[in-house]
Design brief:
The complex is a heterodimer.
Chain A (H helix, E strand, L loop, with lengths): L2 H22 L7 H12 L3 H9 L4 H31 L5 H10 L1
Chain B lengths: L1 H22 L3 H23 L8 H20 L5 H29 L6 H29 L12 H21 L4 H19 L7 H23 L2 H25 L3 H7 L1 H11 L12 H9 L3 E6 L1 H5 L3 H13 L3 E6 L9 H8 L7 E3 H4 L8 E5 L8 H4 L18 E6 L19 E5 L2 H14 L1
Parallel strand pairs in B: 1-2, 1-4, 2-3, 4-5, 5-6
Classes of the chains: A mainly alpha, B alpha/beta.
């Protein structure tokens, strides 16, 4: 790796860390479980690394390891997003009747 | 041209991931945010498929199909009560994938006789070490949460010294490999030691500390992905991994703060054994517990103005969240104000109780955080504690010698009356005695929480 590449990567890392801190500290405790499963799904992006390893035919060992990695990451991506959606659907403000009442008051 | 296409798809994905997480700052915007993130993920995958190094698609497609099926099955069928286990398992998967990519990269260069440069080797070492220890650590956490392994902390003499020695050895090999990356046996020794370290790290941690460990493993899994990004010089991996890593880190800090403990104390303190000593000293406060009957509680509830439910892990094990909601419905119909006090570390992972209650159709506007519910409690007629213990233990506030001294608690003992739903007379998971149970204001309602609540629903209807 060239040192310029490393520096550029470190920039990305530092800025992502800073941004992540800002964005994630605004997530209310109410949504901490969906947050965990969402970030899990998102970090399943390591799938893109596994895809290349599995498809590039470097050697048999790499292909096998890459294949297993593809299975694991895809499980995380699909499972993580499906379950996050399922959880978020359950969070409701109020049962329907009182909500209408609030709307009228406005 | 192709490179531009790939890089642009990654850039788009990175932006959409951040927007997606930003959406999670409010329940109303969260769903839309997740759809953005999902679209971003799709873009990144499609972009990668045109990568020039990819020759054969057989394994890719097979892997994608198997993974999607397993993921879909898990996503659809895992019950909400099993969310901590599922999350632990997905940490393990994510970390394992990162570790495998790292091992494969190392092996490929070794095979081709190319020496990895020091920077790449350093990143790769981090990736493989973090990936391996998170894999085994998360699998053990999964086993503990699933009840395959006993949840009590396992400690032995010299544990911390042994762990430290192991960590030092692993780090030493890591540094040696950066200088001389050519030794395959050493590389695999490092992998093996990291796998062992993951297990040793989680073994001494008790069930009550699980929220911290879950967050920490989340953080490690994310950082392993970020390290993969450094190895492959892939920015979207660095960004997504870092977001995940920091999210886990922030959650760990929040969880520790909610217990008034430091991360080192959670990891190396082995809580359960210290607790046993402290209670052995004992205090004169242990009187008798007052048992109350269903009908008494029902009358109290029916004529109350405000009732606060305080759920804990016991609610999850008893699957009692729907029964809680039924009781709340009956009470609300009678004009009683019902609120829920949620402690940050109630349950086995951050936000565990909120999800369970949301599943039972409790509106999130009735869920109150620790700081919000405490001022409400003096005006509360009945506080009902459902399978919670440490988070309502007044010793944390009153007894400086207690192992949980200083931990913020939900002060149910300030309510006019407290009813504790508990399976039996034994101590909680942490093995701590809870003086709340002996207070005159407290009544104990023994039995399965779900049964008790269902009976209460009927009794209140007749009251």
């Amino acid at each position: 790796m060239r040192s310029e590449t490393l520096i550029a990567s470190l920039y990305v890392f530092a800025l992502a860390a800073f941004l992540g801190y800002q964005v994630i500290s605004r997530v209310p405790p109410l949504l901490h479980t969906p947050l965990m499963s969402a970030t899990n799904a998102i970090s399943g992006i390591s799938l893109v690394g596994s895809l290349v390893t599995a498809g590039a035919r470097y050697n048999t060992v790499s292909t096998i390891l890459g294949f297993i990695a593809v299975v694991c990451s895809t499980t995380n991506v699909v499972g993580g997003f499906v379950i996050t959606d399922r959880m978020l659907k359950m969070f409701k403000r109020k049962p329907t009747a009182p909500e209408k009442a609030v709307g009228k008051k406005r | 041209m192709q490179t531009y296409f790939i890089e642009l798809s990654y850039l788009l994905a990175s932006i959409l991931f951040i927007l997606g997480l930003k959406g999670l700052s409010h329940p109303e915007t969260a769903k839309r945010g997740m759809h953005l993130a999902e679209f971003g993920m799709l873009m990144a995958i499609v972009g990668t498929l045109v990568h020039h190094e990819i020759i054969t698609y057989t394994w890719i497609i097979t892997g994608l199909v198997i993974g999607s099926l397993v993921g879909l099955a898990m996503g659809v069928w895992v019950p909400m009560t099993a969310m901590p286990q599922r999350t632990a398992l997905s940490h393990a998967f994510g970390a394992f994938a990162a570790a495998l990519v790292g091992v494969s990269e190392y092996y490929r260069h070794f095979e081709a006789g190319v020496h990895l440069d020091r920077i790449t080797m350093a990143a790769l070492g981090f990736e493989v070490m973090l990936g391996s220890l998170t894999t085994t650590g998360s699998l053990l956490a999964f086993a503990k949460l699933q009840g395959l392994v006993r949840g009590t902390p396992l400690t032995y003499k010299g544990q911390n010294v042994f762990n430290m020695a192991l960590l030092t050895a692993t780090t030493a090999i890591f540094i040696y490999l950066i200088v001389a990356p050519g030794s395959m046996p050493l590389f695999f020794t490092m992998v093996g030691l990291s796998l062992a370290f993951g297990i040793l790290l989680v073994i001494p941690i008790g069930a009550a500390d699980m929220p911290v460990v879950m967050s920490l493993l989340n953080s490690y899994a994310g950082l392993a992905s970020a390290a993969t990004g450094f190895v492959l010089s892939n920015n979207v991996l660095i960004i997504a991994g870092t977001l995940d890593g920091f999210s886990g880190f922030i959650l760990s800090v929040l969880m520790c703060r909610a217990m008034n403990r430091s991360i080192t104390n959670v990891l190396f303190g082995a809580f359960g054994s210290a607790a046993a000593e402290a209670t052995a000293i004992g205090d004169g406060r242990q009187g008798t517990m007052r048992e109350v009957g269903l009908d008494d509680v029902a009358v109290q509830l029916a004529y109350a103005h405000q009732v606060v439910f305080v759920p804990g892990y016991g609610m999850a094990t008893a699957q009692a969240q729907h029964a809680v909601r039924e009781l709340a419905n009956v009470l609300e119909k009678r004009g009683v104000t019902v609120k829920y006090g949620i402690h940050p570390v109630a349950g086995r992972m951050p936000g565990h109780m909120n999800v369970l209650l949301a599943e039972a159709n409790v509106p999130y506007s009735s869920l109150y955080e620790l700081e919000q519910i405490n001022p409400e409690l003096p005006a509360t007629d009945v506080a009902i504690v459902i399978g919670a213990n440490d988070v309502v233990n007044p010793d944390a506030r009153d007894n400086p010698a207690s192992p949980i001294a200083g931990m913020p608690i939900i002060e149910v003992d300030r309510a006019k009356s407290v009813v504790v739903l508990k399976r039996g007379q034994g101590k909680g998971f942490s093995g701590l005695e809870n003086p709340l149970f002996f207070k005159p204001v407290t009544g104990m309602l023994y039995g399965d929480a779900k049964d008790s609540l269902t009976h209460l629903v009927q009794a209140v209807q007749h009251a």
